Amino acid sequence: MNTDFDAFASMMAAKKLYPQAEVVFPGSQEKKLRDFIESFNPLPAKKLKDIDLSAIRRMIIVDTKSPERIGSFSELLSKPEIKIHIYDHHPHQEGDIHGTLEVIEEVGATSTIFTEILKKRGIKLTPMEATILCLGIYEETGNLLFPTTTERDLQAVAHLLKSGASLKIVSNYLKVELSRDELDLLNELTQTSKEVVINGIRVIIAKASREVYVGDAAHLAHRMMDMEDTDALILMLRMEGKILMIGRSRVPELNIAEVLGEFGGGGHPTAASATVSELPLEILEDNVLKVLHSHIKPGKTAADVMTKPVITITAESTIKEAESMMTKYGVNVLPVTRNGSYKGIISREIVEKALFHGFRKNKVIEFTTTDATTVSKTTPVREVEAIMIEQNQRFMPVVDKDKIVGAITRTDLLRVMYEDYLRRSRIKEPVTEEKVSIRKNLASWLRDRFPPEIYSVLKLAGEIADARQYNAYLVGGSVRDLLRGEKNLDIDIVIEGDGIAFANELGKRLGAKVRAHERFATAKIIKPGLILDVATARMEYYESPAALPKVEMSSIKKDLYRRDFTINTLAIRLNPKEFGQLVDFFGGQRDLKDKTIRVLHNLSFVEDPTRAFRAVRFAERFGFKLSKHTENLIKSTLKMNLFEKLSGSRLYEELLLIFNETEPVRVMKRLAHYNLLSVIHPKLVLDDELYSLLVSIHDTLLWFNLSFIEEKPSKTIMYLMAMVSGLKDEDKKAALDRLSVPPKIKKTVIEGIHKAVNAVRLLPLKDPADIYNVLSPLELETVLFAMAFTDEPEKKKEISRYLLELRKVKPILRGKDLKKMGIEPGPIYSKLLKELLSEKLRGRLPAREDEERFIQERLRQS
Which of 372, 658, 762, 777 has the highest CB neighbour number within 10 Å of its CB? Predict the structure, then answer.
């Protein structure tokens, strides 16, 4: 009914797919389309009265699924013998027609769907046909500017232009210059408009009457949306005995298609229309308001954006204690409580002035702001926004009865305002690895890029958290690498709530084991094929530089703030309502895009100097750079000698991670660039000799691992050998002691270096038995180190031969065989078997008979 260009173009394209079908309009056409048909007559169509409904065996319905919009043809839907084929781009709604064939894609226009089908089937288009399809796409997508426009629409237009589409014709028929009548109508709509606010969503309702039918009134709705700063708009136009309703929405809380669906209409969540029978506009307006109240989802409230739990201070604490607490936790405002009840707030500014005036021992309550405005959890965010701006209040306590349950800061408010700005933007950009919106939902990425079993676990985690009134987040490397387009199945979940209780329930539902660590409020869930880490959202503070952190329960924001670099602070919400929503408090997306490693604050390396090693490791793994500020902080940490306070075991753990990187030598080179190797030992310098040895170690390990998949030599031992090989013996020991290397590994490293050097000195030997005798007593890592250590090809070749051939050679005969040959047990066994092995190594005894003859010959000679 009321066919537009998209429906008309789709009918034309369907005719090419169904040549025997008849084209029929079930109702009237929009004025611009009528003008076009009169000028070009591009598609012969029959009138409804010329069709014998009883003869129909198949209906092809385009650009709609609603039975109310196909006129008399809806009478045929109940006949099972009639096949129904549907092509449409509108989302599914209750009461839609279902067909034997359904091609339904959520793109900007049904014309896009047909263009893709025709292109795929190789069906050629005339320039006029291409132009008509272009008209359909351009009209339905607002010249490719509506938020419903997709990448596929642009690709379809590109194909149509190649097929000869005329943009001049498109422009002539889609011009939106307003006529005098339309200007009068727009003025009346503006004058009669009124705004209502429902659940924080602003909706403008406007109405007007005309004796005659006004053409395409939809663009008037777009004009008004451009003119008015509102979330949604509903126009009611009485014309020729009917009322045309046009709806537009900019916000996800209001699906305008569902609202107008209550009046027999339909469309998209952002744009829809309906036609209703004659009814007083005032009564229709009342009905619209009732429907809006039932359909508008609650907007964001204080509970959705507040930070929780909140760090508080008791009323009886001293001003000096308040200063210490603010410094310890990095906050500028503290809510004040007495016996658990909220009493007011105190700011850092007040504390510092009180200290300046000598009131360090006075009680906090004496300087507390007791009349600061508070809000409840259900207060709409827009109301919070108004209060904070109008009253210049930078910290908003969220109070339930007399208990403080959260707080909203200016940063929280700015983030909400920015998200609202992005949501209102008319330009919809496709999400890619290069550009992800600050409020982008990555649910489809989780579904498509994670294994189904992990995706289902994440969904279940969100449901369990919701039932417990917790918030659950996927955090860590898996989120970072999801945005980088890399696979990472290390699943870490952070819970705003009791993480261990959550883990126990999730483990029970999964039939998995749960290992809880009460001290750190963490747990590990283990079952075949799945290891999942769960942690309670927590914050850290350091009592001294380089010390281990103290941990307390906190919010997701504070939990992410304690992490090392911005790229590791990204999180994804798992609760059903916002499943897949990306959380980025600290610019992690920006740094991923810019390929930059950046610390979160200036004391990052002071609190944990190992982060300097980690920064270099991540930079080399991902091909990123360190931000200039991060580099300067590393230099400052070295100047302050803070690495001296770092325990050897923590430094050793970082080195182990570096040795297991794909390109550890590049990491070592970058560490040397920042003078971080001096932390291990002041004389440890990456000169050309050490660099060449490290490269040789890497190449040797690569060769060995490809040659012997089942054997895994210790990278740690080999790289430690290389690192300290150029130092004097006492310095070797000092460097390994600084790293707190386990005694057994330390002994292997020091002795291995000497043994390898001695072995290399003895080579080449030519005789396979001699080569074997030199290398066989050595540990595998020592042999490989010797191979990497020498730069003489002949010596490398002999070590390679030992590893590939000689070490596998074993005599067939054993001691029991010698006994069967009549030889009395004794020292002679060892001598004979050793001589037997030497001859076998030389390739002279290929068979058992040869070995037996050799033994008999040696016995005769003795």
Answer: 658
* Cross-strand bridge partners of residue 516: 523
> Strand 201-210 to strand 194-198: parallel, antiparallel, or no bridges (unpaired)?
antiparallel
Q: pLDDT, tens digit, for every residue of 716-739? A: 999 999 999 999 999 999 999 999
Residue closest to 636 by CA, chosen among 542, 545, 541: 545
CA distance 574 to 463: 8
Query: Could you tell me which of 110, 107, 237, 103 has the C-alpha nearest to residue 181?
Result: 237
Residue 232 near residue 250, CB atoms below 8 Å:
yes
Integer Cα distance of 133 and 156 in angstroms: 9
Q: By the 8 A CB rule, do 342 and 402 touch? A: yes
Find the Cα–Cα–Cα–Cα dihedral 794, 662, 431, 424, rounded to 10°: -140
Spell out the residues 6+ positions from residue 616 whose beta carbon is closer than 8 angstroms to its own. Answer: 626, 667, 670, 671, 674, 676
**Neighbour-count burial of 109, counting CB atoms closer than 10 A to its CB (0-12 exposed, 13-18 middle, 19+ buried):** buried
Mind spelling out the 3-state secondary structure of 303-341? HHHCECCCCCEECCCEHHHHHHHHHHHCCCEEEEEECCE
Distance of CA 221 to the CA centre of its chain: 36
DSSP state of 785: H
Close Cβ partners of 311 (under 8 Å, ≥ 6 residues apart): 325, 329, 331, 334, 554
Report the SS3 class of residue 302. helix
User: CB neighbours of 121 closer than 8 A, spacing ≥ 6?
Assistant: none
Nearest-angstrom CA–CA distance, 138 and 5: 9
Asked whether the predicted pLDDT for residue 542 surpasses 60, the reply is no
Give the up-direction half-sphere exposure of residue 442: CA atoms within 13 A in the CB hemisphere: 32
Q: Sign of dihedral through CA atoms 404, 405, 411, 417?
A: negative
Collect all residues with Cβ–Cβ distance below 8 Å to 580 and sequence separation of at least 6.
441, 442, 443, 444, 445, 446, 572, 573
Nearest partner of 523 among 509, 539, 505, 540, judged by Cα: 505
**Sign of the CA dihedral 814, 818, 820, 825?**
negative
Residue-wise pLDDT tens digits, 673-719: 999 999 999 999 999 999 999 999 999 999 999 999 889 999 999 99
| Residue 240 predicted with pLDDT over 80 | no
How far is C-alpha 472 from the geometric centre of its chain's CA atoms? 15
Residues whose CB falls within 8 Å of the CB of residue 475, separated by 6 or more in sequence, listed in order: 492, 493, 494, 559, 560, 570, 571, 572
Calculate the CA dihedral of residues 488, 491, 495, 499 and round it to 10 degrees: -160
The confidence score (pLDDT) of residue 739 equals 95
Residue 680's identity, in one-letter code, is: I
At residue 307, the pLDDT reads: 86
pLDDT in tens, 204-235: 999 998 877 666 677 788 878 877 778 899 99
Distance CA 176, CA 183 (A): 12
Nearest-angstrom CA–CA distance, 51 and 66: 21
Write out the two tokens for 150: 């997709």
Tell me: cis bond preceding 269? Omega within 30 of 0 counts: no
Q: From CA 38, how far away is CA 831, in angstroms rounded?
A: 111
313-314, strands of its sheet edge to edge: 313-314, 333-338, 341-347
pTM, to two decimals: 0.61
Residues 527, 513: contact at Cβ < 8 Å?
Answer: yes
Residue 535, helix vs strand vs coil: strand
Question: Which backbone phi and psi does 194 adopt, to 5 degrees?
Answer: -140, 150
SS3 at position 855 = helix
Instruction: Classify 406 as helix, strand or coil.
Output: strand
Beta carbons within 8 Å of 470's beta carbon, 6+ residues apart: 495, 496, 497, 498, 502
